[in-house]
């Protein structure tokens, strides 16, 4: 066992951490406190002192004064949570509240388990939002609230969930509650007219409790059928929490729902019987019903979506009329005297519309409307499938309008409606939660003739690239040792004959098959629009993107282009140049021409946001290709040093863990000093000529897809 640090060594470490030449903090009494401790405890405390000092020296100093006393009352895991909570409080609301966290150690001790093992809303929101996206039904949003309930559009979770012993179980508890609230929206609990249903009862509150107890039993059966794996986890969670068993007089209800879960109407049919009974205690993952909140949100949504669906159907009918005319070669006929009537049919989670006996695949926004309407009404009312007549409704009145980001930046509440992302603090070895404020902005178009000039200037290279990408599209692979195929695999045949002569069973995989490559690609181009790209670098980026787009159109892979820039963590900007769903047309070309240098290079938050967008696309191979001229940087900020490099590296780790292949193409001749650390030795390249950039991307494509 190593000897403890000497007083001289402790003094040097503390004076360095507290920068005593400028802060004038006295460390003698702190040395006296730390000197009697064993080496392991000293290293534990000094490590956290230095990590906290990277955030704020005063917080670190006060932590050191109190940590030895806390050692007798808190275990090390709780002390770590105490230190991180103080730093997070400093990030969120400033120095004085952070010091209060340290001064009031008794208050922290009272909630020590929540801080050490609890699942915090900010930490689980992203994961659970992705989980929600994979579930059927209406699109739902996770929000923080005091109670666990849903208003049929938003699911509310508390700031911290700490009812279970372990951190993993508390995360599972959040997931189970989200799943249960989703079930309330998906299986009809939120479409009940509660006022009418409970009007005949003398005690509406008791009727609500009885209804909820019955509905919980119904939803549990629905979850067991829809999400059997998660359902088993939820039952195990309930057992570990010690939830009481269902009372004997409620078991017939559970058996009835097990046989046929039914709809909420089946719950109302049993309400008179349940009203006379004492409701059972809820399980740990159950969510409350809030009839008033549901009614307010539902009534507004139903009025809006009834009008909007009819408008969307009118647009579909017009598109169908024009397409039919184009296929027959006739001029579009006159519009019908009466608005067209659609028919809707749902198969599983898919919707099919029929107009004049011809099926029409509804676009995503119409599918979402149909799903939402069916959840509110239980079906699609026929009158809502009648397309709107001329001038009947204005869709602009009902569709959500995006705020102008440039105007919002000017206001006091500039974080309203923005994306909030964490940032990795390598000195702290923890994330700064909700640290970066990011907005997506549509890029203004540039010079109309710029793209044609670039294509004329590089017509030879564009032609060569098109041939290269077309060849990749037509690439085939020779698959050997197949059960059937186009030719005999001689190697496999020789081995099979040798096996048969040895008395072993002869393989039937004796053929070769020429397999045409099945491309399933999604590529995100992340373009540096910082001020340092001003001049020839900006021209190089724009010209390369134009040539790549012209070539990628021949390949058929899905691709998107976003620029990034910003100024400080409070104003990070992502510029939409081409989304995955947008075609490469004149508008896209004009936006590429509009790529101009702006502010600084805060890369971590841009990588996190574009990785999120990329993960929403269905593709087997996902690439995130960064075009940049230098290292991460920001305006008078610690980001321009090692902090920015480590945050970018951490963001790239996160991208890789989600299945994304990051690659960086840089024009910075000093890139070899930091890019291997961020991207790895094989995932970056430095170029010095514009002509090499599109060719290099073609090489990346070939390497990652074969």
**Treating each run of at least 4 consecutive H or I residues as one helix, how many helices?**
29
Instruction: Trace the largest sheet across and list its strands.
Output: 9-10-16-15-14-17-18-19
CATH class of the largest domain: Alpha Beta
Structural class: alpha/beta
The largest sheet, given as strand count, sense and whether it forms a barrel, is: 8 strands, mixed
Give the terminus-to-terminus CA distance: 53 Å
Share in helix? 40-55%
Oligomer: single chain
CATH hierarchy: architecture of the largest domain: 3-Layer(aba) Sandwich
The averaged pLDDT comes out at: 83
Task: Outline the fold blueprint.
Blueprint: H1 7-18, H2 20-23, H3 28-34, H4 39-53, H5 57-71, H6 76-93, H7 95-103, H8 105-110, H9 112-117, E1 119-120, H10 121-133, E2 141-144, E3 149-150, E4 154-157, E5 160-161, H11 167-186, H12 194-198, H13 204-226, H14 228-241, H15 251-259, H16 264-269, H17 271-275, H18 291-328, E6 343-347, E7 350-355, E8 358-360, H19 364-377, H20 405-410, E9 419-425, E10 430-442, H21 450-457, H22 459-473, E11 476-482, E12 487-488, H23 490-501, E13 511-516, E14 521-528, H24 536-555, E15 558-566, E16 572-578, H25 586-593, H26 603-615, E17 621-628, H27 642-657, E18 660-666, H28 675-679, E19 684-686, H29 692-705
Parallel strand pairs: 2-4, 10-16, 14-15, 14-17, 17-18, 18-19
Antiparallel strand pairs: 1-5, 3-4, 6-7, 7-8, 9-10, 11-13, 12-13, 15-16
Helix pairs in contact: 1-3, 1-4, 4-5, 5-6, 5-7, 6-7, 10-11, 11-13, 11-14, 13-14, 13-15, 18-19, 22-24, 22-29, 26-27
């Amino acid at each position: 066992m190593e000897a403890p640090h000497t007083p001289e060594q402790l003094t040097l470490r503390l004076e360095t951490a507290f920068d005593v030449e400028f802060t004038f903090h006295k460390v003698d009494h702190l040395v006296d406190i730390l000197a009697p401790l064993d080496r392991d405890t000293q290293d534990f405390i000094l490590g956290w002192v230095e990590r906290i000092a990277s955030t704020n020296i005063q917080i670190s100093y006060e932590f050191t004064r109190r940590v030895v006393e806390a050692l007798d009352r808190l275990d090390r895991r709780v002390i770590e949570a105490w230190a991180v909570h103080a730093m997070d409080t400093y990030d969120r609301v400033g120095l004085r509240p952070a010091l209060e966290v340290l001064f009031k150690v008794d208050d922290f001790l009272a909630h020590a388990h929540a801080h050490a093992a609890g699942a915090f809303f900010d930490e689980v929101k992203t994961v659970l939002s992705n989980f929600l996206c994979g579930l059927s039904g209406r699109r739902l949003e996770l929000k923080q609230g005091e109670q666990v309930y849903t208003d049929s559009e938003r699911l509310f979770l508390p700031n911290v969930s700490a009812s279970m012993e372990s951190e993993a179980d508390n995360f599972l508890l959040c997931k189970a509650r989200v799943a249960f609230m989703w079930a309330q929206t998906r299986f009809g609990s939120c479409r009940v007219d509660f006022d009418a249903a409970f009007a005949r009862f003398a005690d509406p509150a008791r009727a609500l409790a009885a209804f909820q107890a019955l509905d919980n039993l119904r939803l549990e059966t629905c979850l067991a059928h829809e999400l059997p794996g998660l359902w088993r986890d939820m039952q195990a969670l309930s057992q570990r929490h010690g939830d009481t068993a269902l009372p004997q007089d409620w078991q017939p209800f559970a058996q009835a729902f097990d046989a046929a879960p039914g709809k909420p109407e089946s719950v109302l049919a049993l309400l008179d019987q349940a009203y006379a009974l004492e409701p059972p205690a809820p399980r740990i993952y159950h969510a409350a019903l809030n009839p008033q909140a549901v009614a307010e949100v539902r009534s507004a949504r139903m009025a809006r979506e009834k009008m909007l669906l009819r408008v969307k159907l009118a647009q579909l009918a017009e598109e169908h009329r024009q397409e039919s005319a184009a296929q027959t070669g006739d001029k579009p006929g006159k519009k019908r005297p009466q608005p067209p009537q659609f028919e809707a049919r749902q198969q599983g989670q898919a919707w099919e519309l029929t107009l004049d006996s011809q099926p029409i695949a509804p676009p995503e926004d119409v599918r979402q409307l149909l799903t939402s309407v069916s959840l509110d009404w239980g079906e699609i009312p026929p009158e809502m499938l009648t397309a709107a007549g001329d001038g009947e409704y204005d869709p602009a009145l009902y569709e959500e309008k995006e705020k102008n980001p440039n105007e919002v930046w000017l206001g006091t509440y500039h974080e309203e409606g923005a994306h909030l992302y964490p940032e990795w603090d390598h000195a702290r070895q923890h994330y700064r939660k909700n640290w970066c404020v990011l907005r997506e902005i549509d890029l203004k178009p540039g010079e109309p003739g710029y793209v044609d000039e670039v294509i004329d200037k590089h017509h030879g290279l564009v032609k060569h690239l098109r041939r290269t990408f077309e060849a990749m599209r037509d690439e085939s692979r020779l698959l050997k040792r197949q059960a059937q195929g186009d030719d005999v695999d001689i190697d496999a045949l020789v081995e099979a004959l040798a096996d048969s002569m040895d008395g072993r069973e002869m393989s039937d995989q004796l053929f070769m098959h020429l397999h045409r490559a099945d491309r399933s690609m999604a590529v995100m181009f992340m373009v540096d629009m910082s001020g340092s790209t001003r001049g020839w670098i900006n021209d190089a980026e724009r010209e390369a993107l134009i040539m790549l787009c012209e070539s990628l159109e021949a390949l058929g892979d899905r691709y998107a282009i976003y620029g990034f820039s910003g100024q400080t963590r409070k104003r990070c900007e992502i510029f939409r140049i081409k989304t995955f769903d947008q075609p490469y047309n004149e508008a896209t070309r004009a936006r590429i021409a509009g790529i101009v240098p702006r502010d600084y290079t805060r890369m971590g938050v841009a990588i996190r946001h574009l990785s999120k967008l990329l993960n929403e696309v269905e593709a087997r191979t996902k690439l995130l290709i960064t075009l940049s001229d230098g290292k991460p940087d920001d305006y008078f900020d610690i980001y321009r040093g090692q902090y920015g490099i480590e945050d970018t590296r951490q963001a790239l780790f996160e991208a890789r863990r989600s299945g994304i292949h990051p690659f960086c193409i840089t024009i910075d001749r000093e890139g070899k000093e930091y890019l291997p650390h961020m991207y790895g030795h094989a995932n970056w390249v430095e170029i010095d000529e514009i002509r090499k950039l599109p060719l290099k991307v073609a090489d990346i494509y070939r390497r990652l897809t074969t």
